[in-house]
């Protein structure tokens, strides 16, 4: 079905449902939208609304009838969590996505943004990775279950566009970090894991820190406050079937990242690398030319973002996910 839609600034009184509003991404979206004058934000914790429960999700949408939906809810984790619990990552995320997207379709929600992950791309995708690399090769085995769930979400959004003509879009962020991140030993991603590890070593005077892998893989990082700005920008300026990469277009080796974190926390000891642990994909840097073409660019440098995350972690340590 042909889509008759022209992107425009969102009405600040729109009912905007942020699925996953307490997480890393959702909380940043909530802060950003509030700062931009949105007055009717809707959020529910997982205790208040289990997005895996189809009947509850449909009842919620019928009651609140949101005008805009941002689907930021997901079960997420690092290499260890993804490789240890692939069934959980596949089953939970497929159910969350399907329930929210189907309920939004029943209400004919006019604008929806589905957020995925850069792990959707093949392990040996061309670098930087263009959106066209999707489904062109085998996935990284350590997070293939999560990746398949997110790929299903992209195709679900594209199917709604084709069959029902609704202007829904998808965005694929690179590695994210910032306030409200997960700093747990088993569930965190690389940057919060490094922040916690080096901060604890600095506090205890530990002579060396052991990190996973060789330290040679290259990764790209985006502060979550930059992502929230990109999300609003896309909702107001972009309409297309293709998902949109969201990142900086620049990557660094994990060894260099570890050095930046050590410096930010004031750790002067030695960094060691456990090469018996997996490296994951050797390089993952996004081609962000499509996003740049819409007129958006990140504002927060990696060094400033890391320091911001360290400061937030120390200030909020009693409340963070450890």
CATH domain class of the domain at 16-181 and 221-249 and 284-300: Alpha Beta
Can you identify the CATH superfamily of the domain at 16-181 and 221-249 and 284-300? NAD(P)-binding Rossmann-like Domain
Count of alpha/pi helices: 10
Number of strands: 13
- Portion of residues in beta strands equals 5-15%
Shape: globular
Distance between the termini: 47 Å
CATH architecture of the domain at 16-181 and 221-249 and 284-300: 3-Layer(aba) Sandwich
* Helix content percent band: 40-55%
Secondary structure class reads alpha/beta
Cα-based radius of gyration, to the nearest Å: 19 Å
Unreliable stretches = none
Major pleated sheet:
6 strands, parallel
CATH topology of the domain at 16-181 and 221-249 and 284-300: Rossmann fold
User: Please, what is the average pLDDT?
Assistant: 95
Helix and strand element order = EHEHEHHEHEEHEEEHEEHEEHH
Record the strand order, biggest sheet: 2-1-3-4-5-10
Per-chain topology:
Blueprint: E1 16-19, H1 24-35, E2 41-42, H2 54-64, E3 68-71, H3 79-84, H4 86-106, E4 111-115, H5 144-164, E5 169-173, E6 175-177, H6 190-204, E7 208-212, E8 218-219, E9 221-223, H7 224-237, E10 244-246, E11 252-253, H8 254-265, E12 270-274, E13 283-284, H9 289-293, H10 302-315
Commentary on this structure:
The chain has 322 residues and is α/β, with parallel strands linked by helices. It has a domain at 16-181 and 221-249 and 284-300: Rossmann fold. Helix content is 41%, strand content 14%. The chain is built from ten helices and 13 strands. The protein has helices at residues 24-35, 54-64, 79-84, 86-106, 144-164, 190-204, 224-237, 254-265, 289-293, 302-315; strands at 16-19, 41-42, 68-71, 111-115, 169-173, 175-177, 208-212, 218-219, 221-223, 244-246, 252-253, 270-274, 283-284. The strands form four sheets. A six-stranded parallel β-sheet has the order 2-1-3-4-5-10, with helices on both faces. Strands 11-8-13 form a three-stranded mixed β-sheet. Helix 5 (144-164) links the parallel strand 4 and strand 5. Helix 1 packs across helix 7 (224-237), helix 4 (86-106) runs parallel beside helix 5 (144-164) and helix 8 (254-265) packs across helix 10. The protein starts with 15 loop residues before the first strand and ends in a 7-residue tail after the last helix. The relative contact order is 0.15.
